Structure formats: C-alpha cells, structure tokens
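#help-structures
NK: newbie question, is this the right format to request a structure? protein is M81 family peptidase
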Amino acid sequence: MSAHPPTPDIAPLRIAVLHFAHETVTFLAQDTELNDFIYEGSPCRDEALLQADPRGYMGGFVRCAREYAGIELVGIDSPLFPKTGIGSGWVTQEAYEHFTQAMLRDLADRGPFDGVYMALHGAMAVRGVPRPEAELAARVRRVVGPNAILGATFDPHGNEDEQFLEAADFAFCVKFYPHYDMHLQGERAARAMVRAMRGDFSPTSTTLKVPIVSPTVLQWTGASPWMDLAQQALVWEAREPDTVVNIYFGFPWSDVPDIGMTVQVTTNGDAALSARIAADLARSAWRMRKALLHTTKIHTIDEGIEKARQDMAAGRTPVVLADHSDRSGSATWVLDAVLRHDLHRTLVASVADKALVSRLMREGIRPGASFDHLVGGLVDESAGQPVRVTGTVLGTGSAQDGTGGRSDYVSVRFGAGNVLVISTYLMQIIDPAMFTGMGLDAADFDLFAIKSRVHFRRGFDDTGFAASILLVEPPEPYLGTVRLDGLRYANVRLEDYYPYGDPTFEV
Ligand SMILES: [Zn+2]
C-alpha cells in the first residue's frame, strides 16, 4: 500500500453558523418577547449551538460540514426556538433587534468568514420588519462582505419571496410535511456551500410566487396532490445535477406581505435551467390548485365527536381526533364535547393552562390527589371557556413536545377511563410513543383527542396505528381556521390568492 498523496494545500474555510427561527401566528394575542427566547440553553454559541438540534437542520449541516477537511465551524451567539413553541404571536421588534444585533456583533468580532450558514424557518413575523429572514441575510451580508457564501435552511411553511436570495446564495427548503428531511436539507446546505466556497458551485436562482394560499392542515405530503408536487421537485433534482428545488407551501396565519406558495430553483450557473424548472413546478401547482385545496375533510367539533362515537361503536379504533385549529393550546372545545357526550377511554392531550400547571406544581401536587379545577380556555375567543374537570391526579412531569418545545404537565384521570393532560404550552402529540414518557399506555384508550395538523401523521397515520382519523375545528372561524377569509388581515389582500379571489397566473 502506498501512502496517501499529500493533501493539496487548501486554506482552511471558516463558516459561521447561526440560528433564528419562529413560526409566528400573528393572530394570537400574546406577543413573542425577548424573554421567551431566553431560557436554560438559549441563547447559546460554539459547540452548544452546533449540537443543539442533532436530528434537525443544524445536526445535518454540522455532520456534513465536518466530513470535509479544512473546515472550521464557528457557532455564533444565537437564540433557540422560543419556549412558547409555536403558540405565541408577533415577535417584538425589541426581541428581533436584540438577537440580530448580538449575532452581527459576534460575526464582526470573530470574522472574517468564508461562509455563513443560517438555520431559519421562514415564517417568523416581526412587528415592523416585513421580511425578517431577508432582512437578517442582508445585514449579515453587510458584515461578512460580498465574497462570503450565505446559505440557509427553511421550513416548508416559510413565507418567502425573492428577497432572501438577493442577499444570500442558497436556500434549502424541507420537501415533506411532516418535516422528515430537515437534517438532509442541512447536509445539502453544507455540501453546496463548501463547493461554492471552493469555486465549484456558482448559484443562480429563480423565485416565483404562485398565488395560492392554503391552510397547513391540508398540506400533508403523504397523499396526492401535495405528494405529487414534492415528487416533481425530487424528480427535477434527480434529473439535473446541482439543482435545488424548493417549494414553500406557506403559512397563512402570519399576516405578512409574502404569504402564499413560493417556488424557488437554484442551479449551478444555468439561469435558463433555473427559470425552466421553476416555471414547470409553478405551472403544475397552479394546474392542481383546486385539488390542493380539497384534501383533508375538516369537521366541526360536534360532527367529529359524533363520527368518533360511530367509529368506536363499530370497533374502528383507535380513533384520532385532532383539533388542528388550536394555536394557543388552551382550546377547550373538544374537552367540553368529551364531557358533554360522556365519552369513555378517551385521552385528551393536551389543554394548555400555564397558570394552573404552575400553581399545582408549586403546591407540590401528588399522584392520587383529588382534582377539581377549571381548565384552559380564555386566552382569546378561539380558546373557548374554561371547563370544570373533576377527577384524580395521575402524574406530573415535564415532556418534550413533538415540535421541539418542552412543557410541564399534570395528568388527570376522569370519567370512565379518560385522561386529560394539562400542559404549560401548546403540546403537539405526534406519536403515541410520546405517552409512554408520561406514564400512559396508549393501549388503554380508544380515542386520542390531540392538537395537531399534520405532524401527528408521523406516528399515528404513517405507522398504521390509527383506524380512523378525524380533523376538527370549532364552528366559528377562529384564528386557526381553514376559512382564512374569517381572519382580519391587515397586510394581505386575500382576494389576490386562490381560492379567495380569481387571480391569474402565467409564466
Ligand atoms: Zn412547518
């Protein structure tokens, strides 16, 4: 065996890594404030940031970047996802400026950098900053200079237009919902950025807004027609080397100017190819617009409960009944219906009531204690009224939510084999295995009443666990509704988008 040839003399490349992400429901009453981003572990920097999300964008980016010799990653002082999860409203300008300026200072102090990787989301909405991710990229560009390679990863619910890539070089958006491929997009970002820094990738992009606005509950990529759209993007990436195809489905509960669907294609120096692929995908989406809006059936709460009763009577169990519309986590509509209809073997997880959980934990409540309290509701009209629950405390603890947040919780046994989980924040249960961590056995229940839109399909649907799946929302078009014309937008003209107006679209 001969020795390896000497490594060519390549100057080490320095990549700054930062994180700033939120999915903002601007219709929620409670702002996302500076303090919501500050908790044990956040903000963080250096290795703590690089190791913050091993299964997500950050993990994929860091793993792949470290496959290369001569790469130095510098974790810039960054806030992690706010502790309110996705259950809080407008990010205050104070919070945005505080963290953005801290990141820019850290970038300036520790530069120069050959590249900056930004783990973003795309649906952060900031008071007074119409396009917070594009604004961040533009400011980062001013600090690191024109030659650095800027790349970012995005959520499919990002609200983006062409402005981000006017300041940055690369964007990589997750293809699937549930978001299975976050780490893969992080890996792709690392590979493309390293190649661009070495002069082997010259990104050129086309971004097209497609005037379709859709509620996220309809955007499941596990079935047609959203699956077809994802497949078409994957086929283009398979056909053409060095092609990045992004479809941002969009997030309509942010009242920002760039809502709606966005198609974005980047190629290695072939502007005509970027334009051709983007046009092909945008035309497909536009052709499919009617089908894209007619996927999952959404029932009223009472319809959903009635169907669940029929399913249980016929032995079609377990049944999942998901209130997709609850954005604060405090909505009590389903809990109220479970009590009114005297359902059995039902697990309600969860109803958020921060004040009650905090008080019970402070008082040192123990399993076996009797429980008689008003629960949830009230944070705004979409949450409904508090509901009185009488039963026995089953357990308390702290649990990871399916979208990365962490809540304290109290679980309560009530009625005939029912359990209610009360949490500090909105808790998305995405897998029945999550109940095990709370000391519950999924086999003890026939009906799972959860708060989730599509994430839950990961553990309840893609696995074949649920025999019946019912999506519900309250009869009024409250803030998480699929009836977007029931919302009071200030920065969006809904009639500019299908299906609320009759826009034309040609490329
Ligand atoms: Zn998302």
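mod (FA): yep, format's fine, and the tokens are attached above. The chain has 14 helices and 19 strands.
NK: thank you!
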